[in-house]
UniProtKB/TrEMBL annotation:
Regulates G protein-coupled receptor signaling cascades. Inhibits signal transduction by increasing the GTPase activity of G protein alpha subunits, thereby driving them into their inactive GDP-bound form. Plays an important role in the phototransduction cascade by regulating the lifetime and effective concentration of activated transducin alpha. May regulate extra and intracellular mitogenic signals. GO terms for biological process: negative regulation of signal transduction. GO terms for molecular function: GTPase activator activity. The keyword Membrane applies. The keyword Lipoprotein applies. It is found in: Membrane. Its main location: membrane. Pfam families: RGS. It is a lipid-anchor. This is Regulator of G-protein signaling 16.
């Protein structure tokens, strides 16, 4: 909209802008665009975090009722596929998932029937989890490590029993209590409790 009033500030501004080089105007537009992106970044980050939390909740929604049983005992947790998955996710946050992976590998190892496969699996598990400086070395004492090493010479389904038991005890006494206190597990139990109350109020 043009202004024909002499001395109008708007008219002076328009004339001033008209005298500016095109490059200056382009830079001003670019600066405005960048400022807009920076101003919106925190909001964008908040949206991403919120959606991630929602996805995590929906992943465990079907297991929320079962989650109440996991606090009864460590055995109860290990019997549940959803419980093992939830516990594994928690252990990843503590960078100690190798303990559970070793325990699961031992459980699978015990089901092996072929003697040839038994020997090759035993060596693979030992190299990955048990030997000194193994890629995913579990926290067991030297004596247990040496007993397991000797067991490999005549591998049977029981050759990892002692090492597996030590790792299980470590998880039960150390990681399991922290898992029960974790925010993710507390959220699941709250969901289960609120659903139980909601169901009772509708009956």
């Amino acid at each position: 909209m043009s202004c024909w009033v002499p001395g109008c500030p708007a008219l002076s501004m328009c004339r001033g802008l008209a005298t500016l080089p095109i490059t200056c105007l382009e830079r001003a537009k670019d600066l405005k665009s960048r400022l807009g992106i920076l101003l919106h970044k925190p909001e964008l980050g908040h949206r991403i975090k919120t959606s991630g939390k929602l996805q995590l909740s929906s992943r465990w929604r079907d297991s929320s009722q079962e989650a109440l049983e996991w606090r009864e005992s460590f055995d109860q947790l290990l019997k549940s596929k959803s419980g093992v998955t939830a516990f594994h996710t928690f252990l990843k946050t503590e960078f100690s998932e190798e303990n559970l992976d070793f325990w699961l590998a031992c459980e699978d190892f015990k089901k092996t029937r072929s003697k040839t496969k038994l020997a090759s699996k035993a060596n693979r598990i030992f190299e990955e989890f048990v030997q000194n400086e193994a890629p995913r070395e579990v926290n067991i004492d030297h004596e247990t490590r040496e007993i397991t090493r000797k067991n490999l010479s005549g591998a049977t389904s029981a050759c990892f029993n002692e090492a597996q038991a030590k790792t299980r005890t470590l998880m039960e006494k150390d990681s399991y209590p922290r898992f029960l206190k974790s925010a993710s597990y507390q959220d699941m139990t709250k969901q289960a409790t609120s659903r139980g109350i909601s169901k009772r109020s509708h009956t």
